[in-house]
Specification:
Blueprint: H1 18-30, H2 38-43, H3 47-62, H4 76-93, H5 96-102, H6 110-136, H7 150-182, H8 187-200, H9 203-206, H10 208-228, H11 232-249
Helix pairs in contact: 1-7, 3-4, 4-7, 6-10, 6-11, 7-8, 7-11, 8-10, 10-11
Keywords: Membrane, Transmembrane, Transmembrane helix
Pfam family, one: Rce1-like
Protein name: CAAX prenyl protease 2/Lysostaphin resistance protein A-like domain-containing protein
Length: 257
C-alpha cells in the first residue's frame, strides 16, 4: 500500500484550488513512470488480446481449419492468464518506486467509497441503456449470453471478477494514464487516450456496442482515478460492475435488455 501523503498535501473536497492541488499530487505520484517507453506502454495492454488470438488460432489449426466450437467464455481463461502474467511480470521487473507509481493503492476515504458506489449505479445504467439501444437497432448487446455450466462460471469468476478489475486498472488507469501524465500530456488528452485503449480491447465482445459502453465506463473509472489519486475507488467500481455482469450472465439477476 502506498504511504500516506503528508498532511500538507491532502486535498479537502470543495476547498479553493482543490483541482490544482489534486493535479500536482497526481503529477508527483506518476513521476517515476516517465522513463518508460511510450510505445511499450501503449502496446502492453494489447498483449493479452494477442495471446488470446494466438490460442484461438491454435485451436482452429488443431481442428484442421474449422471452428473448434469453443463456448464464448472459454477464451476468458487465456485472457485472464495473460493479464495476470503481465501484472506479475511488472511486479518482478519494476523497482518499487515505479510499481507504486502505477499501482496507486491508498486507504480510500469515505467520499471515495461513496463515489465509487454511485459510479457503479451510473455504470449499470449505462450498460442497460446501451444494450437496450443496441437491440432496438438490431446490434448485439454488450453481454456474454447465458452461462450455466460449472466450468463456464468458474472461468467467468477467474477472468472477470478476480483478474480483470485488478489488471485492467493497473494497466489502463495506472500505467497508461500515469505514463502519459508523467510525459507532460494534458489531463484531458491522457484520459481520452487511456479510455480509447480500454474501449478497444473490449471490441471483440460485441463490436461497436462494446466500444461505446466500455468507453463510457472507462471514463467513469478514469474520473475516480484522477479525482482521488487512487486506484481503489476505480477498482471497487470495476469489481462491482463485473460482479453484477456475472450475476446477469449466470441467471441470478434478471436481464434488463
Amino acid at each position: 500500500m502506498a504511504p500516506d501523503t503528508p498532511t500538507t498535501d491532502r486535498v479537502e473536497p470543495g476547498s479553493a484550488g482543490s483541482w490544482a492541488r489534486r493535479r500536482r499530487r497526481l503529477e508527483r505520484t506518476v513521476e517515476p513512470l516517465v522513463d518508460c517507453s511510450l510505445e511499450w506502454v501503449l502496446a502492453l495492454p494489447f498483449v493479452p488480446i494477442a495471446f488470446t488470438a494466438f490460442v484461438m488460432t491454435a485451436g482452429i489449426t488443431a481442428n484442421q481449419g474449422a471452428d473448434p466450437g469453443w463456448p464464448q467464455w472459454a477464451l476468458i481463461v487465456p485472457l485472464g492468464v495473460a493479464y495476470a502474467a503481465i501484472v506479475y511480470w511488472l511486479y518482478r521487473e519494476w523497482d518499487r518506486a515505479t510499481w507504486r507509481a502505477a499501482v496507486v493503492v491508498r486507504k480510500p476515504s469515505t467520499d471515495e467509497i461513496g463515489a465509487a458506489l454511485l459510479a457503479t449505479l451510473v455504470g449499470i445504467a449505462i450498460v442497460v441503456v446501451g444494450n437496450n439501444a443496441a437491440e432496438t437497432v438490431g446490434l448485439a448487446p454488450h453481454d456474454r449470453g447465458l452461462v450455466t455450466s460449472g466450468a463456464g462460471i468458474a472461468a467467468l469468476v477467474f477472468g472477470t471478477v478476480v483478474v480483470a478489475p485488478i489488471a485492467e486498472e493497473i494497466l489502463f488507469r495506472g500505467l497508461v494514464l500515469g505514463h502519459l501524465v508523467a510525459r507532460g500530456y494534458g489531463i484531458v488528452a491522457a484520459s481520452i487516450l487511456s479510455v480509447l485503449l480500454f474501449a478497444l480491447v473490449h471490441v471483440f465482445m460485441a463490436g461497436v456496442v462494446s466500444i461505446v459502453v466500455t468507453g463510457l465506463l472507462g471514463a467513469l473509472l478514469t474520473v475516480l482515478r484522477l479525482w482521488y489519486d487512487n486506484l481503489v475507488g476505480a477498482w471497487l467500481m470495476h469489481l462491482s460492475i463485473n460482479v453484477w455482469g456475472l450475476l446477469v450472465t449466470v441467471g441470478v439477476v434478471p436481464v434488463l435488455w
